[in-house]
Amino acid sequence: MDLLKMIAELRAEKAAIDDAVIVLERLAQTHGRRRGRPPVWLSVVRNSGNDVKPSRVFSNETRKRMAEAQKKRWAAYRKAQQAAAGK
């Protein structure tokens, strides 16, 4: 592994640990149970590590083909269930 790459990864881990320490320090400063929505700083730190993949966008034609294929699968399943019940 490249030495510069290792250093960059360690710095990234250090930054993540520093963020976690800051959050814990802020939580330690609050006393007792709080009511309501969490503060903005907490949600920003919490969500910064979660990279949400964008959902796929299907065309209407693709959706129609997927629906037809699913209907065929269900029809085959029901036919198999009726055949098993008839035996």
- Average pLDDT works out at 83
What fraction of the residues are assigned to beta strands by DSSP?
Answer: under 5%
Multimeric state: single chain
Count of DSSP helices? 3
Question: SSE order in H/E notation?
Answer: HHH
From the N-terminal CA to the C-terminal CA, the straight-line distance is: 64 Å
> Which overall shape is indicated by the principal axes computed on the Cα atoms?
elongated
Structural class: mainly alpha
Can you describe this structure?
With 87 residues, the protein is mainly α. Among the domains are: 1-31; 59-87. 72% of the residues lie in helices and 0% in strands. The longest helix is centred in the N-terminal third of the chain and has 27 residues, at 3-29. The termini are far apart. The model has no long low-confidence stretch (mean pLDDT 83).
In brief, what are we looking at here?
The chain has 87 residues and is an all-alpha fold. It has helices at residues 3-29, 40-48, 60-86.
Outline the fold blueprint:
Elements: H1 3-29, H2 40-48, H3 60-86
Properties at a glance:
elongated; 87 residues; 0% strand; 72% helix
